[in-house]
Amino acid sequence: MPGFNPLWHTWEDEVVVFDRFSGDTHLFDTLSAVLIRSLTRLPFEQQVLIEQMAISHACEADAEFVELIQARLQGLAQLGVIECLPD
Amino acid sequence: MLYGDYPLLESEFADFHVKLARPRNWRHWLKPQVEFSFDGYHPFKPLPLSQAFPMFEWALNWCVANHIHRYLNIHAAVIEKNGYAVILPGPPGSGKSTLCAALINRGWRLLSDEMALLSLEQNLVIPIPRPVSLKNQSIDIIRNYAPEAVLGRLAVDTHKGVVAHMKPSLASVQRANIPARAAWVILPRYEAGAEAVLSPLSKGRICMRLAENSFNYNILSGSAFKALTSMLDQCQCYSFKYSQLDDALQIFNALEPAQ
After folding, report:
1. Would the CB atoms of B222 and A20 count as touching at under 8 Å?
2. Which chain B residues have a beta carbon less than 8 Å from that of A15?
3. pTM of the model
């Protein structure tokens, strides 16, 4: 989301994020946190993001992995933390 | 009686100017009531005169929760031993006030039975020791566990049932200006017949729980987030199930702060 400039704090595999824009506090796992951090730097096409995640996690971007990332992105969009732009 | 150990300050400055008085109408005589005013404003409906003391305590909680924002205020009891504080968040009925009352009759210091005031910069919990509110069965439980405890008059038919307040220990009052470093966040839950068990909880989940149970987290915003996460860095977090107060005392006395 434009202007998204959160505060972060990490404990082991948990990440709490304070959205300064909305005042909301969220609890994420490390995968969601990595997605958010990636999108905070630059917008990505979903397919490119999935491929980058697969590389960074040393796994194949198979159907299961794609579904996992898509579900996470959808959840983050519902929280208002990211925004899906039209094609 | 319950505030007998507190010093009477001579300064003209006060955080709150409050007053309890009987209404100047026919309710002064018939089914008498009491009104609470705060700086001349009446934020609540009158209550029966017999509930004057609990009304004072509830209203003072409201004053602090709504007006003191130099600290992060979390709905929790707080006790201390050897300089380290245990924060006991919990919804009504979780047994936190009963547990708090029992422990402060066995050597723990009371910082508060209702509000954990967390300094925004120094990772310290600020004491605000006041009479401990006991409800319903808890009153007899504490009477039996600590016969020496001083309890105020029973107020019946309140919206919380039967309520009585327990005088805090002299040591708690005398040390009201000494903050403590939070070392544990423990979510108590009374369960009849349960063995006393401490179970680790994740800091992330505790963080969310404390934020949700804060009176002013949204007001303090990023400062609250930083203070809360910094505090949790130094805390061990648990849920605590118990039924016997002596078992709880044994477990709490065995707590060791993280190195």
Report:
1. yes
2. 204
3. 0.90
